[in-house]
Amino acid sequence: QVQLVESGGGLVQAGGSLRLSCAASGRSFSRTDMGWYRQPPGKEREFVAVINWSGSGTNYANSVKGRFAISRDYAKNAVYLQMNSLKPEDTAIYYCYAPGPYWGQGIQVTVSS
Predict the structure, then answer these.
(1) Which residues contact 48 (CB under 8 A, 6 or more apart)?
(2) What are phi and psi of 67, to 5 degrees?
(3) Residue 97 in contact with residue 103, Cβ under 8 Å?
């Protein structure tokens, strides 16, 4: 059974940082892109960031460019999202994603002003 499990969320003040982790199990994702999406309160799920299978290419939503960084660890079958200079509008449930599609259960990130 394939599972994506997020961790590292929580409550942080504006300007702070958090690092989300997504641990995959049940199969290897070393040959696929992996990414992050988020769903703000009362809004639809939206794209945040993606990293290609080789780790050589990344893409970000305009709203997070320059503040967030996605990375991956092939040995751990994991993907990460480093979030810096957080803003209240970054408050959302964050989901790990891999083509399949496979989704994590989501993790809450709350940024207070």
Answers:
(1) 35, 36, 37, 38, 60, 61, 64, 68, 81, 94
(2) -115, -35
(3) yes
In contact, 96 and 34? CB cutoff 8 Å: yes
Residue with tokens 């803003």: 87
What gap in Å lies between CA 109 and CA 1, rounded to an integer?
A: 27
Whole-angstrom CA distances from 26 to 1, 9, 108 are: 5, 23, 24
- pLDDT tens string for the chain (113 positions)? 999 999 999 999 999 999 999 999 999 999 999 999 999 999 999 999 999 999 999 999 999 999 999 999 999 999 999 999 999 999 999 999 999 999 999 999 999 99
Assigned token pair, 73? 């660890």
What φ, ψ does residue 88 adopt, rounded to 5°?
-55, -30
